[in-house]
Fold this protein.
Amino acid sequence: MLQIKNLHASVDGIEILKGINLEIKAGEVHAIMGPNGSGKSTLSKVVAGHPAYEVTQGEILFEGTDIAELDADERARMGIFLAFQYPVEIPGVSNSMLMRQAYNAIRREHGEEELDPLEFDDYVHKKLDLVEMDPKFLDRSVNDGFSGGEKKRNEILQMAVLNPKLALLDETDSGLDIDALRIVSNGINQIKSSDKGVMLVTHYQRILNYITPDYVHVLKAGRIVKSGGKELALELESQGYEEVEEIR
Amino acid sequence: MSLTTAPETTFDLDTLSSGEVPVLNLSSIDAVKQAAAQELASLPFPTTRDEEWRFTNIKPIARSSFKKARSAASDGLTYDTATVPEAADSTLVFVNGLFNESLSRVQGLPEGVIVTNLKDAAIRYSNLVEISFNQANNFEHDYFALLNTAQFEDGSFIYIPKETKLDKTIHLVYLTEGTENSAAFPRNLILADRHSEFTVVEEYIGSDEHAYLTTSFTEILLGEESHMSHVRLQKDGLKAYHVNRIVSKLQRGADLQSYTVSLGAEIFRNDVRAIMDGEGSHATLDGLVLVNGKQLSDTHSIMDHRVANCTSHQLHKTIVDGKATSVFNGKIFVRKDAQKTDAFQENHNLQLSRDGMVYTKPQLEIFADDVKCSHGATVGQMDLEQEFYLKSRGLTDAATKEILTYGFATEVIESLPVESIKEDLKKAVETYTRRGVQNN
């Protein structure tokens, strides 16, 4: 589904990613872990197409197509979704308006009929339960005045609505208390399936108690320095990132 | 050596009125009209050399010769009062500045409430008109205030008796129908007795086909503890010129919530003033301006805090696209007796194109020592993080621009007191942003 080959990326001329190789197949959950500043969040933003980051070398193949030069919206309509570490507030634009427009944009891309507001309302209400969200959030401005936990749940709600093939979850667990973490993880678990890939970027092991990764990769200074199974996360938790040896 | 000077820009008053000043048949007011006409004759037309007009070039207004439209006929012109159901039977309609009785519907008003045309009021309620006319007017030596005063033939008159709470919205509709270079001068007078509560929507509508000039003037006198919600919608044709003056005078405890939304006209100049003349009064003068193409929109406002313990609020938002220009000059006066004033002013400008121009100038003049005044202005493009967020959800560039513009404008629209107007404006904003997206 996603193949990243020797990916180098910079922001403001500073190289952050220095040769990433990673393959995520349908049905797999990959956890990307690493210390602060290692490039974890950058990796998810680069795959999603953030315009501030420049791919200087390498390839990002999504279902066989190199997407490195595509705009974020084109990637999104192909089926890539980024759950933001810091979801952006958009005053004046209701949650349901955003989701309906986005959902219909994706449907149009696939030659499907758009849903009218009433049909969409039915569709979105079914998704609310996944993240235990009150319907009143649909009428509120996107993330405006939401608590940290509500913002993260809203990201997962959007993901459930847009039903992407590849989910990039950028520190979705950060800033969540234990209840919110459980709700968000449940939501993710219900959405993930054998035809979807998940890249879960996280600093801490605790979300992996809820979402079991197939692979764990450790990112340090812009490179994957170690890969392993889910047990690697526990190892990291007890030893810290300092102890991870370079595998090069 | 020879110096050549450009000929003075003058406004063609002769074509407009042939030296005549229309009368209202109320001697005291006709005297005011005559005096205004006399002053006007010796007053130079404003140019960009005048501080108050620095960024607003109104030469195109002087270059055209306008003529008053002579009839209020509405051939082929309709206005459906059901457009605003809140005012289905409380609507006055004017065509080219003249009252159109057949399109108006005012049968649904409670006894004592007066909603009629000023010409009629001058006869039937001459006392009320005489004691209030020109009482709030503080536009001195102002070309367009004088032009309106001298040349107006009619306008709206509203009187709300004491302790009257009006649930219905009063809707004043000013239509301009298509004749080239026609001019209209609506003059409105709104009078609220103590403890009254009411909502007025002033709406100016015209077609894009012809150039025309509207010079309007609204005076508002709010009695003690009265509450007025006011919406002013400027939806003129894109070749129109519109110069408006509006001044409100507030007595003790009066509360004015006024919103001006401007979408149309090639050149629009709006001078909005609130005079807090009684303790504990409050004025909100919010604004939303959407301009595109070669439109120019200029808002000059004055919040005049004359006495103690008054508050004022002003959120003025502008969206500029194409080669359009927006000007905002917001003055707050706090006079020496106006202790404990609390004044808030913010101006936010969203610039959607490279060629658009934004001029913003907050101006605070404070002569009291115990006051709270805040002001701020921002000029910016779309927020990059918001843009990326929306695009990461699959929205195209065009849709992203549309939705962010909509969000920016909605903050003002959401505060409006009339539901149907809100919905209408949300659609208008969508149309505006689509138009902008297509042009860029």
About this structure: Chain A touches chain B at residues 48-52, 71-73, 75-77, 81-82, 84, 87-88, 90-93, 97-99, 101-102, 105-106, 109, 141, 158, 162 (CB under 8 Å). The longest strand of chain A covers residues 14-24.
